[in-house]
Amino acid sequence: KAGVTQTPRYLIKTRGQQVTLSCSPISGHRSVSWYQQTPGQGLQFLFEYFSETQRNKGNFPGRFSGRQFSNSRSEMNVSTLELGDSALYLCASSEGTQRNTEAFFGQGTRLTVV
Amino acid sequence: AQTVTQSQPEMSVQEAETVTLSCTYDTSESNYYLFWYKQPPSRQMILVIRQEAYKQQNATENRFSVNFQKAAKSFSLKISDSQLGDTAMYFCAFMKPQGAQKLVFGQGTRLTINP
């Protein structure tokens, strides 16, 4: 079984631009969650999608948005980038049920805003 | 809101030694899941061990075991016979059992295993 794939691995963007990150979950998994990892704030939950619906959302401004497609692939979009958005963005894939809680993470997308 | 605290930012031990990483959490929930994740320099988070709060028995996975003290809201990870490959950041995480995948992470402990 292929693991969780995040693309691209690295991105450099300019302040004010927007960016889209992609996450392909493990086959059969319907849940995709996104996390932001920074040295100062640690790992913070952004949002979770399950069967194309946002099921949970963290405390991030509206510039951070996401969506999930019918094949469970998910995209995360950040508009009007700020320097503070520089971070490692991780996505996690899981079955998304109470019976199986294990989350499998991708290798992340390192976003640098200059 | 749930919070997870890891009070040891860094730890260092010699290969083959036993090391214990600490984690405390705060919640009003009676049932929940606790996890330890490992993040090596490759950045990929890997699940080390999982504990369900309603299970009194401490979880074990080979050289990894936990000491789960529900009343004290403590969840420590013990690594026995430590190996060089155990060098990584270790994160303690909490999740409510709602099916929704929302992990609340601690700040992490950087563990170095020295040869």
Describe what you observe in this structure.
The complex is a heterodimer of chains A (114) and B (115). Chain A has 114 residues and is mainly beta. In chain A, 0% of the residues lie in helices and 53% in strands. Chain A contains no helices and eleven strands. The radius of gyration of chain A is 13 Å and the shape is globular. Chain A starts with a strand and ends with a strand. With 115 residues, chain B is mainly β. Chain B has strands spanning 3-5, 10-14, 19-21, 24-26, 33-39, 46-52, 60-61, 64-69, 74-79, 88-95, 104-105, 109-114. In chain B, strand 7 and strand 8 form a beta hairpin. Classes of the chains: A mainly beta (114), B mainly beta (115). The interface between A and B is medium-sized, with 27 and 23 residues.
| Head-to-tail CA distance between termini of chain A | 37 Å
Chain pair sharing the greatest interface: A-B, 27 and 23 residues
Overall mean pLDDT of chain A? 94
For the sheet with most strands of chain A, the description reads: 7 strands, mixed
Major beta sheet summary of chain B: 6 strands, mixed
Rg from Cα of chain A:
13 Å
N-end to C-end Cα span of chain B: 41 Å
**Mean of the pLDDT scores of chain B?**
94
Strand content of chain B: over 45%
Uncertain runs of chain A:
none
Tally of individual helices of chain B = 0
